[in-house]
Amino acid sequence: MLKKSTSCAFAAGIAIALGLGLAPAAMAETTTPTSTAASVTAGAPQLDALRAELPADWADRVADARARFGLDATTWADQTRSVIDGSDYQCATTPVNAWLTGQLAGIDRPTMQAIDQLAGFDLATYDALIFGAQDKRNTFGYDGSYTNELNRTMDGLKKFWDFDGSDIQLIPMHGDTYRSIDRMVRVYTGVYGLDADSAREIAEYVQALIFSQPGLRQGDNPYFTFNAFAFDPAPEDVEQFPGLTKRIIMGDGVMAGLRGIGLQDKAAPLGVLAHEYGHQVQYANNLFESPLTGPEATRRTELMADAYGTYYLVHSRGGALNAARTLDVAASFYNVGDCAFTNDGHHGTPNQRLKSSTFGASVVDAASNQGHKLGALAFDAKFEAVLPEIVAPDAH
Description:
Helices cover about 45% and strands about 5% of the residues. With about 400 residues, it is mainly α. The chain has one domain.
């Protein structure tokens, strides 16, 4: 079934195995934790008491929400059984995965597990997706340094592709969600259906857990916002959350991660945005439909979005990037490739993602008229023709 959210392969499926009406977006409340959790364990009395208060179908509610909003497509998972033979491909952990793992060094594992049991790691995502709003004052990146480039690129993408994207909003995802009890509560009540009192009690405890670990930086550890994704709401989503629109969410952790592996040029995050807008192109043109199923179906749409994104960024009427900056874009796609061959969220190996990005640039280079731009469907026809070559086994 087509999910309404399609996510780039940025996610927290790393060294720690975790099973993971619109209100004003600008709540600034900072609440001092009411409890401490410096040595919390999965069997701590307070955690056990909170878990006992949760609805009997809590795990189903968490899973259903992730499926409804497409968050399952963002997770990396280690799979041992394969429907796409992993031995046929060159695939290894990439620098960005290792970098993110390093961000959790020294952080107490039982604390992380307790946060996860209370669905704490998804709060910033839902806060941005459901309750965020486009505003000229929105900033992108921990220091706001990506704000101008991302907003300018978003405007360019809307003008470049041949469909009406005026209703697509670019929304930031910040870790400050965890510094506001009210914002945490509205996710627990709005998404998971908890009553206000239970939601507040759990939110205060989750905040205390996060604040107990200096390395989590009161929610500003990149782990909390290491994601970027496109979203096209279903009618029932808009009915429940009036004002919800087509969106692209950009997490601060993504930008920090790309910078952390040495991609200092701002072109790399622009590549992420252009990729996610590629998914909006797919929504608009019904390009998610194909004979492929499972991991291969997801791989196709993700690789296509890589190609769409690079085509825009290289084109003279788009981002007009030079060769050096294009390399940073290609590197950003390579670094979020994954080896989860049996996972329905498989996005393509690092090599496949690099090939797709390179293909997108080659379409521009090969054009006899450099000022001519292809429409979405014309570009898709070229991509579909080379897809078998892009995904051909490359281990031998």
